[in-house]
């Protein structure tokens, strides 16, 4: 049976990604030919991949211990005022919309 698919919309560029059920946000973007800001390459340790979740936060996997620790690197003001997740750790389980600057096609610099 084919894997269930979900839509991930990335603002402000309004990039729409198709994600496999359980795939990370960043994984879906990379597979779709996009560059996603990262220093650790998706190990969950740099925090650079963080996104603001606009809608569908309940469609993402629960925050694990590693993600919880790394999210502490995101400025406190941001964490207090927005719903923040790591794109390399949050797994898509339904349609979701996030905000992330710097996501662009790999060919474009
Ligand atoms: S890519 Fe480094 S924490 Fe997500």
CATH homologous group name:
Beta-grasp domain
Task: Write down the secondary-structure element order.
Answer: EEHEEHHEEE
Overall 3D form? globular
Ligand catalogue:
FE2/S2 (inorganic) cluster
- H/I helix tally: 3
Characteristics of this structure?
109 residues, alpha+beta, Ubiquitin-like (UB roll), binds FE2/S2 (inorganic) cluster
Description:
By secondary structure, the chain is of the alpha+beta class. The protein has a single domain, classed as Beta-grasp domain (Ubiquitin-like (UB roll)). The protein is built from three helices and seven strands, in the order ββαββααβββ. It has helices at 25-31, 65-71, 76-81; strands at 5-11, 15-20, 34-35, 50-55, 84-86, 96-99, 104-105. The strands form two sheets. A five-stranded mixed β-sheet has the order 2-1-6-4-5. A two-stranded antiparallel ribbon has the order 3-7. The protein is globular, with a radius of gyration of 13 Å. It binds FE2/S2 (inorganic) cluster. FE2/S2 (inorganic) cluster is lined by residues 38-40, 42-49, 70, 86, 88.
Summarize the structure.
This protein has 109 residues and is an alpha+beta fold. The protein has three helices and seven strands. The chain has a five-stranded mixed beta sheet with strand order 2-1-6-4-5.
């Amino acid at each position: 049976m084919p894997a269930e698919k979900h839509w991930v919309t990335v603002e402000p560029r309004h990039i729409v990604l198709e994600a496999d059920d359980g795939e990370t946000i960043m994984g879906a973007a990379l597979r779709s030919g996009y560059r996603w800001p990262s220093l650790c390459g998706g190990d969950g340790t740099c925090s650079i991949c963080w996104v603001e979740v606009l809608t569908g936060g309940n469609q993402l996997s629960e925050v694990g211990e590693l993600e919880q620790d790394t999210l502490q690197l995101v400025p406190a003001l941001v964490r207090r005022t927005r719903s923040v997740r790591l794109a390399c750790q949050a797994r898509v389980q339904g349609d979701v919309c996030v905000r992330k600057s710097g996501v662009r096609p790999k060919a474009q610099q």
